[in-house]
């Protein structure tokens, strides 16, 4: 260090603590506001009705055309491999477990790699339900490495039918998209007078 | 040594410690460094040209590699590619900004320390906070307003505050931080350190997909973070050297965070779009061009600020002859 530098009046930063505290305060305010923003964004929904079933769909989801038993098909754009669907399946006097078993069999017919990881009765959205966790290998996209898809089917009774509320996502992403899925699934209600 | 010429500073040259023969802006210089300080270095434009060619070469090599080999990268190969792609543009941008500090180039070790501090804070705090704790990408994409707000409140303020801290607790307290341009240089170094970590993370998480597009994005991201850091550093200089009010640094961080959010939104949202003309998908390129305009505009602004400070210093004190000891 030179003499010239040493002797220069540098205005020592004695008052530098307050500016730093203000920067940290600004950051803290920003993060708190950001957290509130996140909470608001994640809870923002639009209510739609399909076949007597109302559901609160998160604002960011992309709704795709659905037909037949399928009431809703949607994609979360932040997790493009994820897909949420709601289907109404005629119960015809069968139990939820029986309907689930039939659906699993159909899926196994469509996807050779389809495997049920776990299943059993659950309490879902205040109702008796049946839950199936599954996985399959999706090699239909032409990727160099086939994708492992994991999913969850929730079956609940809706009048004389059964609703299958499903989510599937790229392996490793399922856990992160489940909170939004559960909020959506628990919002599903049957409109009064549409039980049949 | 006795200063002549009515109060010219005495002592050795502030850069090389040889006997001073000239004074400028209150500093003592030898003949060689006085000439360098007064005038643009002869090779500056050639060096800038070289920097441009080097950056272009990085992009061209990456595009060629993608087109010819279409490499499927993983493991150590992916890590090496990520490191090279992230570090080379950062080093080139750092040199480009560093050369503009003509009066008193900052010690390279200090610039390097600030760079490393920026990178460490990014890795230890910035990335985990933005990506894991707030998971911004997962919920902020649904509208432009939400992207801007999240980009400012969470991403921008976090990143720019950390760059501020990287400078504040390294170079700021030292006597080397003694000119308005120093804040820009150190802020730029902190920004490039931060950008290097972001870019390495980007290549690793994308699995090295589309190296050509990744290289362009990396070059732009490095420039953008250098500019944001430089802008923040300019305010930091004002805080230390010009006795600005206590909120001055926070205002600089907020301004840099706003520019950060604008850049991220322009690059992110347009890249994600499906804009097509004549069947050709233009989305990614349009996004990169728009992002380049934002980053380039800020860089031009910073360059002008640096030039203005240098010219102000040049005109503040007329060169004064001093007699060597």
Please describe what this structure looks like.
The complex is a heterodimer of chains A (196) and B (325). Chain A has 196 residues and is of the alpha+beta class. In chain A, 31% of the residues lie in helices and 38% in strands. Chain A is built from four helices and ten strands, in the order ααβββββαββββαβ. A seven-stranded antiparallel β-sheet of chain A has the order 3-4-5-9-8-7-6, with helices on both faces. A three-stranded antiparallel β-sheet of chain A has the order 1-2-10. In chain A, strand 6 and strand 7 form a beta hairpin. The N and C termini of chain A lie far apart (88 Å). By secondary structure, chain B is mainly alpha-helical. In chain B, the strands form two sheets. Chain B has a three-stranded antiparallel β-sheet. In chain B, strands 3-4 form a two-stranded antiparallel sheet. In chain B, strand 3 and strand 4 form a beta hairpin. Chain B is globular and about 60 Å long. The relative contact order of chain B is 0.14. Classes of the chains: A alpha+beta (196), B mainly alpha (325). The interface between A and B is large, with 39 and 51 residues.
């Amino acid at each position: 260090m030179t003499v010239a530098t040493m002797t220069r009046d540098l205005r020592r930063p004695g008052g530098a603590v307050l500016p730093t505290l203000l920067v940290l305060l600004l950051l803290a305010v920003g993060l708190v506001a950001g957290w509130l923003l996140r909470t608001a964004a994640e809870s923002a929904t639009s209510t739609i009705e399909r076949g007597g079933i109302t559901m609160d769909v998160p604002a960011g989801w992309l709704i795709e055309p659905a037909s037949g038993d399928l009431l809703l098909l949607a994609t979360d754009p932040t997790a493009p491999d994820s897909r949420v669907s709601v289907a109404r399946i005629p119960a015809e006097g069968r139990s939820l477990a029986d309907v689930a078993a039939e659906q699993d069999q159909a899926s196994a017919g469509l996807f050779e790699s389809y495997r049920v990881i776990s299943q059993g009765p659950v309490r879902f959205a205040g109702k008796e339900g049946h839950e199936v966790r599954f996985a399959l290998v999706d090699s239909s996209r032409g990727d160099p490495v086939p994708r492992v898809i994991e999913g969850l089917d929730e079956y609940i009774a809706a009048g004389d039918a059964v609703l299958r509320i499903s989510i599937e996502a790229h392996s490793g992403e399922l856990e992160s998209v489940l909170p939004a899925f559960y909020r959506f699934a628990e919002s599903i209600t049957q409109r009064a007078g549409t039980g049949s | 040594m006795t200063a002549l010429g009515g109060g010219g500073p005495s002592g050795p040259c502030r850069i090389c410690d040889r006997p001073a023969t000239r004074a400028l802006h209150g500093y003592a210089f030898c003949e060689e460094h006085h000439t360098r300080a007064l005038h643009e270095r002869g090779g500056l434009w050639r060096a800038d040209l070289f920097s441009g060619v080097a950056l272009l070469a990085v992009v061209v090599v990456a595009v060629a590699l993608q087109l010819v080999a279409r490499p499927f990268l993983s493991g150590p190969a992916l890590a090496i590619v990520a490191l090279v792609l992230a570090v080379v543009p950062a080093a080139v941008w750092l040199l480009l900004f560093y050369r503009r500090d003509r009066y008193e180039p900052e010690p390279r070790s200090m610039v390097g320390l600030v760079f490393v501090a920026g990178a460490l804070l990014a890795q230890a705090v910035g990335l985990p906070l933005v990506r894991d704790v707030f998971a911004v990408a997962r919920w902020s994409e649904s509208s432009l307003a939400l992207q801007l707000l999240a980009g400012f409140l969470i991403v921008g303020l976090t990143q720019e505050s950390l760059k501020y801290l990287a400078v504040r607790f390294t170079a700021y307290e030292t006597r080397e931080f003694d000119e308005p341009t120093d804040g820009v240089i150190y802020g730029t170094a902190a920004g490039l350190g931060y950008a290097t970590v972001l870019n390495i993370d980007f290549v690793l998480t994308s699995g090295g997909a589309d190296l050509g597009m990744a290289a362009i994005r990396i070059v732009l991201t490095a420039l953008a973070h250098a500019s944001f850091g430089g802008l923040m550093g300019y305010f930091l200089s004002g805080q230390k050297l010009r006795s600005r009010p206590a909120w001055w640094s926070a205002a600089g961080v907020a301004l840099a965070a706003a520019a950060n959010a604008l850049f991220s939104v322009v690059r992110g949202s347009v890249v994600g779009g499906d804009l097509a003309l004549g069947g050709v998908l233009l989305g990614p390129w349009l996004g990169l061009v728009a992002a380049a305009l934002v980053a380039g505009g800020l860089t031009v602004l910073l360059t002008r600020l640096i030039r203005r400070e240098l010219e102000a210093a040049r005109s503040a004190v007329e060169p004064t002859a001093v007699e060597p000891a």
